[in-house]
Design a protein that fits this description.
It is an enzyme of class 2 (transferase). By secondary structure, the protein is of the alpha+beta class. The protein is about 40% helix and about 15% strand. A hairpin with a 3-residue loop joins strand 6 (about 120-125) and strand 7 (about 130-135).
C-alpha cells in the first residue's frame, strides 16, 4: 500500500487544526481551491497551475471557474486532461457545504461528467472527496449518494490514499485506470451513454414536430417536411448550446416558450440570429453576397405551442440532464450521424412515418468514426503536409472530406489547423501574427474569431449526398468556431475588426452532391425528375472551381460509406441500381471493380484523383482491402498512386470493446499516403502496422514490404500479408526456393474449386440421411476433419442428395470422380488448424461449405502428399499470413507454396516421401482411434499420433530448409491468437 506523501499529511493536519474556521460560511470556494484542492491534485502528479508552460491545447488542467452565466457556473471548475483530451472533471465547493448529502452539488457534477461522456468525475471541498460514476444518467430527483463510487472524508484521506491514487493520479490515468473503469462500467446494467439518450430525445422531438407540421400545414411536401423539421431542431439546438456557453442570453428560448405564440417568438429569435451570425442556419432574406437561397419555407409554417414548449422545456435545468457547455463536438456529431440515418415519410393519408434511409438499411446502420481515429488520420495527412510550411503557404491549403456526414473529419482538421496556426503565429511574433492572436480570461493565447472564420472558409471543404448532413456539418463547424467565446468577447471582436457578423457563410465550402456521380449520368441513365433529385449529381469543377483549377485538394480524408452495391444475387436496389448502370461509363472507376461492388472502393479511387500531386490522402476502410481478391484492382491502384502508403490495421472484430466500431462487427484499416507520379514498380514500398485491438498505444507488429514482395505471394492479386519482419523473411525464403511452386503454377494438374452443390440453389434436393433409391452421399464442411471424415458432427446433421431428381432437372450436373481432397471452407479464425483437409476415396457430392482438389491423370504429386502438406503446421502458418476472413477460399489454396520433385535432389525426394508417409500414418492412427474402445488403448494411440505429427512437421520444415530458430518462431505464432480476425464479408459488407 502506497503511503500518502508529506504534502497530504500537511494538508490533513492543517485542516484538523483549523477545521472550525474552514467549515464556517466565511471560508470561500476560491480559498478552498487554492489552499487545498489544487495542492491535493498536485500531490497526485497533476500540473494544476501549468508550471511546465504547456500550450492551452496540451496542459494537464484547464481552469473553467471563470465562466459564469446568469450568476451560476456553466462549466466545472477544473477539466483534467491527457494529451489534450478531457479525462475527468473536478467540481469544487467550500467546506461549509456537506457534499456527502448535498444532492444539487452532486447533480451538477454528474450533469457535467455525463454530458461530456467521461467515466468518472470528482466533487470535493477537501472535507470530503467524492468520486461519481458518470456513465449513469443523472436525475434531479437523485440523492447525493446516487452513482457515487467513493466517498473519502478528510480524516480518512491518509489511510485511503492508495484508493484515490490508483484511480486519479496522473500516472494511473496515463496507464489506463479510467479507460478500464469506463469499459467495465459500460458493460454493467443501468449505464446510459449521453449520445444514446440525446439521440432518443432528438428522435422524439422529430416525430412530434413532423406530426404537428404535417397536420397543420397540409400543402407541405415530404421533402419540405424533412427540411422544416431538421432546420427547426438545428436552430433550437444551436441557440440552446450557445446559451450554455455564454454566447446567447441564458433563458431566451425558455422565455419565448412561456406563453402563447411560441413559434412567432422563436422566429423573432431566429431572425435576430441571422443578423448576428451570417449563418446559413438562419438565412431568411436574399443578400447580394450570398449564393444560397433564403429559407422561405419555415417562416410561413404553423406549429402548435405545446409541441415547442415540450421540446424547449426538456432542454433546461432541472428537467434536462445535459450541460451543453461541456458537450463535446464529437458527441453531438455521433448523435446527428445516427439521427440522419432516418427520414420522414408521409403515407397517403399524411400520417408521419420515420424509417431508415434505404442506403443505411443496406449498410446495416450508421457507424460514427471514433475521435481518436479521426485525429490519427488528420495527423497522418495534415502533419506531413504542413511540415516546414510558412504561415503564408499554410493559409492556402485545402482539405476535403468527400463524404462528410456530420462533419467529424472536418472538425478534426479544424482543430488541428487551429493548433498549428496558434503555434505558428505565437512563434512568429510578427505584426501580422499579433493581429490574429489574443489572450483569453485564463491568459492563454488564442486565435481571434476572424482568423478562425478565415480557416473555415479558406482551408476546409466537404461534400455529402445528404442535404441534412450538409447542414449538420455546418452546424458542428459553427459551434466549434464559437467555442470559448462569450457574448462579450464576440461583441468586442466584431467591433475590433469592423465586421457585423460572428460566423462565416459556408455555402461555398460545404456542398450537397453525389461524390461519385456527375452530370454525365443524365445522358447515360434514364432518370425521373425525382430520381435525379435524389441521386444528386455533382460536378467537381463547378462545385469547387478554385481547388480543381489548382489540380485538386492538398489533403483528402474521411470514412467513406461501406455499402455493397449489389446484393441478393447481383440485384441492386435504389439508389445503387442507377449507380450500377452509370459505372461502366466511367473508365476512371475501373480500379474499383471486382467481386461485389462496394462504395468505399469507388471513394478511394475517386479520392486519389481529387488529391493534387504531392498532396496526402487518409481514410479508414474495411481491412479486406489488404488481401481480398475482389479488392486487388483497388489495392494496386493505391500502391500506384500513393508513395509509400501506410496500412494501420485493426483486425479485431469479435470483441465489441476492442474493435474500432463498437456496433459493427468489422475489421478495419487506415490507409494513408502521399500522392505519387503514378508508376508501380517492384520497388514501391508499403508499411504495415497491425494492432491487436482498437488502441493506437498498443504495441503493433510492423513491417515494410515492397510490391515485389507481394507479387511473390501472388503476382496477380498482390495480397498484403500482415506479419512481422522476421516472419516475412521466412515467407520470402519459402516462396523463393527453386523447387517451390504455387499450386496454381502447376497448370491443369490440379483443379481446385468450391464444392459443387450450392446449398441454397439446390436446397430442394438436399434430404435426410435415410437410404433411398436415387439418394447419394453429400459431404458438408462440418464433416471434414484433419486426415479423416468425422463420425460425430459438432453441429447440424448428415444429409443426402436426391441425385436422381437433380440430374433430371439438371442433366449435365455430375460430381467429380474420387479420390479427391476435401477441405473445410469456413474455419474459426482463432483456430490453430485453419486448413482442415482429408482425402475422400469414395464417390460423393461436395457441398459448397467445402473445397475440392482433384488431381488430373499424370499429376506430378500424389493427393496423399498434398493433404499431408496442407495439414502441416507450416501451411497453417502460411495460410494465416494472407487470410483476411474466416473463409478458406479456393484461390487462397491455389496461392500456397508447394514443394515439388527436384529430379537432381535425392534428399528432397526422400523428404517428400517422408511427408506423405507421415500423413498416411496419421490417417491410419486416426482410424484406429475411432475404433478403439479402451481408455488405455486410446492413450497409446494418442502418443503415437503426437509422434507422427512431430515427424510430419519436421519433414515439412526440412523440405523447405527452415532453421530451428525459424521453426520455433512459426510454432510460437501458431500458439498465439492470430492478429487477422474474420470479416463478415471480405469486402466490408455490414
Amino acid at each position: 500500500m502506497a503511503e500518502a506523501p508529506k504534502e497530504i499529511w500537511d494538508l490533513v493536519e492543517r485542516y484538523e487544526r483549523e477545521r472550525r474556521a474552514f467549515e464556517s460560511g466565511s471560508y470561500g470556494e476560491a480559498d478552498t481551491r487554492k489552499e487545498f484542492i489544487e495542492p491535493l491534485f498536485a500531490a497526485l502528479g497533476w500540473d494544476v497551475v501549468n508550471r511546465r508552460q504547456y500550450s492551452e491545447a496540451y496542459k494537464d488542467v484547464v481552469n473553467e471557474y471563470s465562466l459564469k452565466i446568469g450568476g451560476s457556473h456553466k462549466a466545472p471548475d477544473y477539466a483534467f486532461r491527457v494529451g489534450g483530451n478531457r479525462v475527468f472533471f473536478v467540481e469544487a465547493k467550500k467546506p461549509s457545504i456537506d457534499i456527502s448529502r448535498d444532492s444539487p452539488s452532486a447533480y451538477q457534477l454528474r450533469r457535467y461528467g455525463w454530458t461530456a461522456k467521461l467515466a468518472i468525475s470528482v466533487l470535493t471541498n477537501f472535507r470530503h472527496l467524492a468520486i461519481y460514476d458518470c456513465t449513469q444518467q443523472p436525475s434531479d430527483n437523485d440523492r447525493a449518494s446516487a452513482a457515487r463510487t467513493l466517498l473519502v472524508p478528510w480524516k480518512d484521506l491518509i489511510e485511503r490514499w492508495t484508493e484515490v491514487e490508483d484511480l486519479l493520479s496522473n500516472k494511473a490515468v496515463n496507464q489506463g485506470s479510467l479507460q478500464r473503469y469506463f469499459d467495465q462500467a459500460s458493460r454493467r446494467r443501468g449505464t446510459s451513454e449521453v449520445d444514446g439518450i440525446f439521440l432518443l430525445q432528438m428522435e422524439q422531438w422529430r416525430i412530434a414536430l413532423a406530426r404537428n407540421i404535417a397536420k397543420l400545414n397540409p400543402t407541405v411536401s415530404v421533402n419540405e417536411l424533412n427540411e422544416a423539421v431538421q432546420q427547426t431542431l438545428d436552430r433550437i439546438v444551436f441557440l440552446r448550446i450557445a446559451e450554455d456557453r455564454g454566447i446567447e442570453p441564458y433563458g431566451d428560448l425558455k422565455d419565448a416558450s412561456t406563453s402563447s405564440g411560441v413559434y412567432a417568438r422563436l422566429l423573432d429569435i431566429f431572425t435576430a440570429a441571422d443578423t448576428r451570425y451570417n449563418s446559413g442556419l438562419f438565412h431568411f432574406k436574399a443578400e447580394r453576397d450570398r449564393s444560397s437561397s433564403p429559407d422561405r419555407l419555415t417562416p410561413g409554417l404553423t406549429i402548435e405551442d405545446d409541441v415547442l414548449k415540450d421540446i424547449i422545456g426538456s432542454m433546461y435545468y432541472p428537467t434536462s440532464p445535459y450541460e451543453f457547455s461541456v458537450m463535446p463536438a464529437d458527441i453531438l456529431g455521433q448523435v446527428y450521424e445516427q439521427f440522419l440515418g432516418k427520414v420522414i415519410r408521409l403515407t397517403d393519408k399524411r400520417a408521419v412515418v420515420v424509417e431508415e434511409k434505404p442506403e443505411i438499411r443496406h449498410a446495416g446502420g450508421v457507424y460514427y468514426t471514433p475521435t481518436y481515429i479521426v485525429e490519427h488520420i488528420v495527423e497522418k495527412t495534415l502533419g506531413p503536409l504542413l511540415e516546414g510550411k510558412t504561415i503564408r503557404a499554410a493559409r492556402n491549403i485545402r482539405v476535403l472530406d468527400p463524404a462528410c456526414g456530420s462533419g467529424s473529419f472536418l472538425l478534426g482538421a479544424f482543430e488541428y489547423l487551429i493548433r498549428w496556426f496558434t503555434k505558428a503565429h505565437s512563434e512568429s511574433g510578427s505584426a501580422s501574427s499579433r493581429q490574429v492572436l489574443f489572450k483569453d480570461a485564463n491568459g492563454e493565447l488564442r486565435l481571434t474569431l476572424e482568423e478562425r472564420k478565415r480557416i473555415l472558409t479558406s482551408n476546409l471543404f466537404g461534400l455529402d449526398i445528404d442535404r441534412q448532413a450538409v447542414e449538420v456539418t455546418k452546424l458542428s463547424l459553427m459551434l466549434r468556431v464559437l467555442e470559448g467565446e462569450t457574448s462579450e468577447t464576440i461583441n468586442s471582436q466584431l467591433k475590433m475588426f469592423a465586421v457585423e457578423r460572428a460566423l462565416p457563410d459556408l455555402d461555398k465550402n460545404i456542398l450537397c452532391g453525389n461524390s461519385l456521380v456527375d452530370s454525365s449520368v443524365i445522358s447515360v441513365v434514364e432518370l425521373t425528375p425525382e430520381e435525379e433529385y435524389d441521386l444528386n449529381p455533382f460536378d467537381w469543377a463547378v462545385g469547387f472551381p478554385e481547388a480543381m483549377a489548382a489540380k485538386g485538394f492538398h489533403a483528402v480524408i474521411g470514412n467513406p460509406p461501406y455499402d455493397v452495391i449489389e446484393k441478393d444475387r447481383g440485384e441492386a436496389s435504389w439508389p445503387h441500381d442507377k449507380l450500377r448502370e452509370y459505372i461502366p461509363s466511367r473508365t476512371d472507376y475501373e480500379a474499383a471493380l471486382g467481386g461485389k461492388l462496394n462504395l468505399y472502393r469507388f471513394f478511394l479511387v475517386q479520392s486519389s484523383e481529387l488529391v493534387r500531386p504531392d498532396g496526402y490522402m487518409g481514410m479508414i476502410v474495411p481491412m479486406g482491402l489488404a488481401a481480398d481478391i475482389s479488392t486487388r484492382n483497388t489495392r494496386k491502384h493505391l500502391f500506384t498512386y500513393l508513395r509509400n502508403p501506410t496500412l494501420d490495421c485493426f483486425p479485431q472484430k469479435d470483441n465489441p470493446y476492442r474493435r474500432i466500431f463498437r456496433d459493427a462487427k468489422l475489421s478495419t484499416m487506415v490507409v494513408a499516403g502521399q500522392k505519387s507520379g503514378g508508376k508501380l514498380t517492384a520497388q514501391n514500398q508499403i508499411t504495415t502496422r497491425v494492432f491487436p485491438g482498437n488502441d493506437l498505444k498498443d504495441e503493433s507488429i510492423d513491417n515494410v514490404l515492397s510490391f515485389g514482395d507481394l507479387q511473390l505471394l501472388n503476382s496477380a492479386n498482390a495480397p498484403v500479408p500482415l506479419l512481422a519482419a522476421d516472419e516475412w523473411e521466412i515467407c520470402r525464403a519459402i516462396h523463393s526456393q527453386p523447387h517451390v511452386r504455387r499450386l496454381s503454377d502447376l497448370g491443369t494438374s490440379y483443379v481446385v474449386t468450391r464444392g459443387e452443390i450450392n446449398q441454397t440453389t439446390y436446397g430442394r434436393y438436399i434430404v435426410g440421411a435415410e437410404e433411398k433409391e436415387g439418394y447419394e452421399p453429400l459431404l458438408k464442411g462440418v464433416e471434414v476433419g484433419t486426415f479423416e471424415l468425422r463420425d460425430t458432427l459438432s453441429q447440424g446433421q448428415r444429409e443426402m442428395l436426391n441425385a436422381k431428381a437433380l440430374r433430371k432437372r439438371y442433366p449435365g450436373k455430375t460430381a467429380p470422380l474420387a479420390p479427391r481432397i476435401a477441405t473445410q471452407r469456413i474455419t474459426g479464425v482463432d483456430e490453430r488448424q485453419r486448413l482442415v483437409c482429408a482425402v475422400v476415396s469414395s464417390q460423393m457430392w461436395f457441398a459448397d461449405s467445402t473445397n475440392s482438389i482433384v488431381a488430373a491423370e499424370g499429376a506430378p504429386l500424389p493427393l496423399e502428399y498434398l493433404v499431408a502438406l496442407l495439414n502441416s503446421d507450416l501451411m497453417q502458418w502460411r495460410f494465416r499470413l494472407t487470410s483476411s476472413n474466416n473463409n478458406v477460399a479456393s484461390n487462397e489454396l491455389l496461392d500456397l507454396p508447394i514443394a515439388v520433385h527436384d529430379p537432381t535432389s535425392p534428399t528432397e525426394h526422400q523428404l517428400i516421401e517422408k511427408v506423405m508417409k507421415s500423413g498416411n500414418r496419421i490417417a491410419a492412427l486416426k482410424a484406429q482411434a475411432r475404433a478403439e474402445k479402451t481408455s488405455s488403448g486410446a492413450q497409446r494411440i494418442g502418443r503415437m499420433l503426437e509422434s507422427a505429427w512431430v515427424s510430419l512437421d519436421d519433414a515439412v520444415y526440412d523440405l523447405y530448409g527452415l532453421s530451428k530458430r525459424q521453426r520455433n518462431l512459426i510454432e510460437r505464432r501458431l500458439g498465439a491468437a492470430p492478429l487477422v480476425a474474420q470479416l463478415t464479408d471480405g469486402d466490408g459488407d455490414m
